[in-house]
Fold:
Amino acid sequence: MWIGVISLFPEMFRAITDYGVTGRAVRNGLLSIQSWSPRDFTHDRHRTVDDRPYGGGPGMLMMVQPLRDAISAAKAAAGDGRPYGGGPGMLMMVQPLRDAISAAKAAAGDGARVIYLSPQGRKLDQQGVCELAARDKLILVCGRYEGIDERVIHAEIDEEWSIGDYVLSGGELPAMTMIDAVARFIPGVLGKQASADEDSFSDGLLDCPHYTRPEVLEGVEVPAVLLSGNHADIRRWRLKQSLGRTWLRRPELLENLALTEEQARLLNEFQREHQQQQNDDVEE
Structure:
């Protein structure tokens, strides 16, 4: 899989390319990450990449030209200004941003989807991760300041994605989150596909509890079923715990699932046992 990144701070992505699962994927040739900075597409000695937004307001915007040129460069391969309207804060300047987008587009070649990490975007969930992982080429545009010019969004951006309803300083951390989540579905990255298949949310449920040595820790024992060697019983126990944990912690996830007969039965068992445990605790 090839991913192009448009960012004013491309060095931040060493956390993805040099470490952990994604770093191993890069070293093994399963994942390729290439970056462009809009600053490299500026034409002034200050390498200006932000400007004030028209209409005023706080913050700055990324400038259009450097961003678009960077996106174009990325597609082919797969500073400081004031926003119009006055007001505090800055935007990324249009020219460096467009130049960076152009460079990324040039690097990607045909078929790359350009994604802008934005609070206004579709919220990333496991289904979305699977959709993104099915693509061969992605270009991720990381905003800074107050965002990017709306005309660049209309002209260059295919999709907007968000990782949650909170404010960050830029799009780099959301982009790294997206890359890490997507990379886990690239064949060979985890070694065993079962590792991805059994992750939380892979089937719409939270993961079950896990245990390792020692067998007894401060008087708390590992559930006996996990020591039994009976793989069918272990599978049922894990599914039951996964269903129960989802019901307790994220019940809204169950609303979107059509439970099988076995899942419904196991969830019902968990609920009865949970209620009994609560009653026992009250009596004590």
Summary: The longest strand covers residues 113-123. The chain has two domains: 2-183, 216-283.
